[in-house]
Every structure is written in structure tokens, then in C-alpha cells.
Amino acid sequence: METISRRNALKWLGLGAAALAFSPYVRAEELFNKPLFRDPLHPQGPQGMPPLKYDEPVVYEGPDVIIRQIDAHTWEGNGHLMANETIYLVEGKDKALLIDAGTKIDDLDKIVAGITQKPVILVATHVHPDHTGSAIHYFPEIWINAADTVNVPMFMADYKGKINYLEDGQVFDLGGRRIEVIFTPGHTPGSATFFEMESDRKWGYSGDAFGSGNLLLTTNFSTLLATTTRIEAYMKRHGIEKMYPGHYMGRNPETLQRISDLRRMSEEMIEGTRQGSTNGQAMMGLNGRIRDFGVNISYRDPEGVK
User: Pick the residue with more confidence: 231 or 15?
Assistant: First the structure.
């Protein structure tokens, strides 16, 4: 597979050259008023989206990212290039976990070092350019799901560091804080979600696995059904209240109800009791679409309906 630049990566995702024209200083509120970002990534438009309002206080604001504090040892950061692409920094007593690296965040290693002095482990929820962008080059290693190596030649071919492979059920022990890796394929073959294992934090970090209301399903509905069935049971078993998504806008955590709705929609597509629509202008080749429960799923028709 051919290596592509960030410009072409944006085109591949359906954002095109116009996305590059946005200044990194443009705030998300302004961004979503532009048709480019309203249509491909969030077809509901502003009326169907939660307001961009954050309860978390800002602790860092730079040209490429705004970082807010979730709790005393957890932070989320929003980039400005691809629909509030989001990174998460999770700190334990001994180490810290950086979940995703955004699209383009200059000096991300230094920014992170200004927040935590603990050694940082970089992991990726999946290999797409708004999660494994240019900032991965500041880190000597990255952890990904091996199933996403299909996307490495396109999006990470020039990465000179070491690529480590996550295992399903793997636990990162950060010192008094453990994070469990659960594979959640669907959006990509190697999507992964990271769950807090301590009783005082009932949440996870899911990347784009469940779409934040607009799931781009590059695999198929059978894969999504297996993932949502598993995560629905996992959330009930462990009392997980929410998952912070890969495009966090302050009011759009992934919930148990969202997972249940996606499971139901997948079942109905496989059974043939639900029908999608097709269109000729397909982002990422996803020419099929279904929508219900305030959720949009884009998929490849007909190969995705199995």
C-alpha cells in the first residue's frame, strides 16, 4: 500500500483540501459551522449534536491542542483539524498512558511532560491519521492492535520507532491504576478500547469504535455485532458508565444505551429486517447508510452487510 501524506490522508477520509485551509487556531465551534465538517463527519448537523460545552477545566491551550483535566490524574486534549480529534493522558503512580496522538500536535511530548513527569507509554485506539498523526514521531514506541497493521503502510509507514502489539485483555499497570485493553473491531479491524479497572473510575476510552453518533464502519455488521454484544456485557458486568470517545465534545460520551442501539441495528441489518440507503459520494468508500436512535452508520454496500 502506498504511503500518503497528511494532505492525502484528509482526502482519503473525505475531508479534502479545504480541511487544510483551516487555521489550527480555529475553534471547534467555528469549525462545525462549516459544511465541510458538518456533512462528512456529523451529518446530523449542529441541531443534532450535543453543544460544545466542557465541564472539564482547561489546563493547557496551544496552537494545536487544548487540554482539559478530567480528574486529578486524567486529562483529555482536543485538536482542531479533524472534528475535535481527542487524546487522553492517564497517570498512575509510576507511569502514564497517552491514548492517541491526534492529527498534528507539535511538541506533544513536551506538552505531556509539562503535565506529568512520569514515563509515558503511547497507545493507539486505531491506525487512522487523526489518531496516529505526526506527533507519534516524538515517541520511541507505540502500541497498536496487530489487526490494524493493514493501515500502517498508508498512515505510519515513515514511523521510525518500535511498533508493539496489544493483546486482548492486556493490562497496563501504571502504579495504583490499571488499564485493560479490550479489542473492539468494527470501525477498523484493529480498533481497541481502554478501560479503567479501578472502582472509582467507571469509564473507558474508545476512540472511534462506536462513532460518537456517526460510526464509519470499515469492516462489516457481523464484526460490529460481535463487538457491541461483547461490550454491552462488559459494561454491565463491570458497571462501566461511559466511554470517552475519539472525538470528545463535552457532551457525547458513549453509553450502554448507545452500544445496545448499535447492536440492535447490526442484528437487523444482518437479518434483513432493516434496509440501508446508498449514495454515490462515498467517504472512505462507505456508500451505504442507516440511521436510527440518533445514530448514523456508514458502511460498504453490499460487502459490509454480512
Answer: 231
